[in-house]
Design brief:
Blueprint lengths: L7 E10 L3 H12 L4 E5 L12 E2 L1 H9 L3 H5 L4 E3 L1 E6 L2 E7 L10 E3 L2 H12 L5 E5 L2 E8 L2 E9 L2 E12 L6 H5 L4 E3 L4 E9 L8 E6 L2 E7 L3 E9 L3 H6 L2 H11 L17 E3 L4 E3 L3 E2 L2 E3 L14 H20 L6 H35 L9 H8 L5 H8 L9
Parallel strand pairs: 1-2, 1-11, 2-8, 5-14, 11-20
Antiparallel strand pairs: 3-7, 4-7, 5-6, 9-10, 10-11, 12-18, 13-16, 13-17, 14-15, 15-16, 19-20
Helix pairs in contact: 1-4, 1-8, 8-9
């Protein structure tokens, strides 16, 4: 009988689990403060389709504060200054970012892997930053009543990472928050999303568009030479949509965006359509001694407004600002770690409350309706008629309820 392989042991000041926007940004900010940090990412690279690619003015302002903005914007991307929604035959202009008190008065769309590669490239300039790919955290290490590290599987064998602080940034299906036994409040969502691509032509509409008809909703994001499409369906109905056949799906797609015409035929198989099971939840407690959850690990967001990445990055900035000075000294006391939740919980609750309002007043009634004309809720119609009122959703989406700044 072979003897089980003894795990390799590493020591670091802070171990961040999850190489998404929250984890990579936090690793960069801590290394910038001279703190030794290890980021663990279970995949071999960042190349995954249909991840959040929406970078809001709040995040662009942070990039400006870090001195990275001009170089960042030199990479291929798309910029959107206004957001529109087409309800039936009526086009409503809902958000105007041009009035924001920021250097960048627009939303940027950039593939998430480009954003992460950019951050990692700059983070590596600091000797304290370490990134380990194909390293999946599977359990927590507990010592003396606190979290003291994580157990990791790698192609080279098991790994034990000991650290003064473990940060769970491993997403809405966080294994670490499950292992820690942190209670989760499921807020719920009435829809799931089907992601797909359709080619774009020069004479197509140039705004970010949402299309709404009875029982159907479509959001189209301009990605330069193609549209990234989010087709909303009632929660848990993907198998019935699939059973109706791909031809029926393409007809529904063409009905929501008639200008696509024969381009809907570019969707040739169901393998080209990705299902996002929408989850909206929030931890009641974000931390335990030695452990902190941030981003989707602490609060899974609805895709409404594309705010998930930006809220997660705000968590990272708050964490670096609040805990960086203590991490330089070693173990961070639980009451200090809890400061992150104290600062970030209110903007999280308010953002999720805004998303739930839109789910209840707009998305759920539309998806439940099988036929007949549809109209936007009164508050959306009023907002669309007033240039001044259009600044409100632009500010809430573009900056959030409590934008953070790099100290």
């Amino acid at each position: 009988m072979s003897t089980p392989q003894a795990p390799e042991t590493l020591h670091t000041r802070c171990c961040i689990v999850g190489g998404g926007p929250a984890g990579i940004m936090l690793g960069y900010l801590l290394a910038r403060q001279g703190i030794d940090v290890l980021v663990l990412e279970k995949h071999a690279d960042f190349l995954r389709d249909f991840r959040g690619d929406t970078i809001h003015p709040s995040t662009l302002e942070l990039m400006n504060e870090l001195g990275l903005l001009d170089e960042f914007l030199s990479r291929p991307h798309q910029e959107v200054e206004t957001v529109s929604l087409k309800v039936g035959d009526t086009l409503l202009k809902l958000g105007d970012f041009s009035h924001l008190p920021t250097r960048c008065k627009f939303i940027v769309f950039m593939p998430q892997w480009d954003f992460l590669d950019f951050l990692v490239g700059h983070a590596r300039s600091y000797p304290g930053f370490h990134l380990r790919m194909r390293a999946e955290a599977v359990d927590l290490i507990e010592e003396g009543g606190r979290i003291a590290g994580v157990r990791v599987t790698t192609p080279e064998g098991p790994l034990a990472v000991k650290s003064d602080l473990v940060v769970a940034a491993d997403g809405r299906r966080s294994i670490l928050r499950e292992k820690a036994g942190l209670p989760v409040r499921d807020i719920g969502a009435p829809m799931d999303v089907l992601w797909l691509r359709v080619s774009k032509r020069p004479d197509d509409p140039d705004n970010l568009l949402g299309h709404i008809e009875a029982g159907r909703m479509l959001v189209m994001i301009d990605r330069g030479d193609y549209w990234q499409c989010a087709y909303l369906i009632p929660k848990g109905t993907f198998e019935s949509v699939r059973a109706e056949g791909l031809a029926a799906f393409r007809r529904n797609l063409a009905g929501l965006a008639p200008f696509l015409g024969e381009r809907v035929e570019e969707v040739r198989t169901w393998d080209e359509i990705r299902l996002l099971t929408v989850t909206v939840d929030r931890l009641e407690q974000w931390s335990r001694p030695g452990l902190l959850c941030i981003g989707d690990s602490a609060h899974a967001m609805s895709p409404i407004g594309g705010v998930g990445i930006n809220l997660a990055i705000q968590d990272s900035v708050a964490t670096a600002n609040l805990l960086g000075p203590f991490l330089r000294q070693g173990y961070v006391e639980p009451e200090k770690v809890a400061l992150v939740q104290k600062r970030r919980e209110l903007p999280t609750r308010l953002t999720q409350g805004m998303q739930v309002l839109i789910q209840k007043r707009l998305i759920d009634p539309v998806l439940r309706r099988s036929a007949g004309p549809v109209s936007a809720p009164w508050f959306i119609r009023v907002m669309a008629r007033s240039p001044w009122l259009r600044r409100i959703p632009a500010r809430l989406i573009g900056l959030g309820f409590r934008p953070e700044h790099v100290r």
